[in-house]
Task: inverse folding
């Protein structure tokens, strides 16, 4: 595993780990704040190494936008999904015996919010962290973390608030959502990321 993939594993692990520990018998209404904060600090920690994606849908968007080498995509996805599995298993061990409430959302509603808010997240990443017009800024991690926090507060009760296929896998393994929902998460998340890349290119033709 190269340095970039290792950083993606570390960042994704902490994101999914905090999701599990705060949602399962934990922080309640404060969970989105903790989740957005850990994403923010991990983006700052690893942005200079891997880009700080920690999200396969973001990796797709960054690749489509032309700022991620094709040879890195598979490695990033493998690291992200592997980290989600490890984090989910560790949460299961640490939270053994805790009450787990499995969501059963309306699938159409869940798809809509997962699509919209993954678009928002990927769009913020592309503009704040990959554009030459914002190069060298110090706010990119804050912008990305706050996007996830706001999205989780807005839509967590509708879909579970993944906005990230790796997080979706993690919460499925933790029993927070049912296996059939994984398809909805993946479809909404990857579609949202792809659309964000298309819109970014449309709005920033000089930056491609």
Result:
């Amino acid at each position: 595993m190269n340095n970039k993939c290792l950083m993606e594993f570390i960042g994704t692990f902490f994101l999914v780990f905090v999701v599990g520990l705060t949602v399962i018998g934990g922080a309640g209404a404060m969970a989105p704040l903790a989740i957005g904060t850990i994403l923010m600090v991990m983006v700052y920690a690893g942005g200079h190494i891997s880009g700080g994606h920690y999200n396969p849908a973001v990796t797709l968007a960054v690749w489509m936008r032309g700022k991620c080498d094709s040879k890195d995509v598979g490695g990033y996805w493998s690291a992200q999904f592997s980290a989600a599995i490890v984090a989910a298993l560790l949460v299961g061990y640490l939270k053994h015996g805790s009450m787990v409430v499995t969501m059963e959302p309306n699938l159409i509603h869940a798809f809509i919010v997962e699509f919209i808010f993954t678009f928002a997240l990927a769009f913020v990443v592309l503009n704040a962290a990959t554009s030459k017009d914002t190069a060298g800024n110090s706010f990119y991690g804050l912008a990305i973390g706050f996007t996830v926090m706001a999205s989780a507060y807005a839509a967590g009760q509708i879909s579970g608030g993944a906005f990230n296929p790796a997080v979706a896998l993690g919460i499925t393994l933790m029993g927070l959502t049912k296996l059939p929902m994984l398809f909805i998460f993946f479809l909404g998340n990857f579609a949202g990321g792809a659309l964000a890349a298309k819109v970014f290119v449309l709005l920033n033709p000089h930056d491609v």
The CA atoms of residues 36 and 149 lie 5 Å apart. The chain has eight helices and no strands.
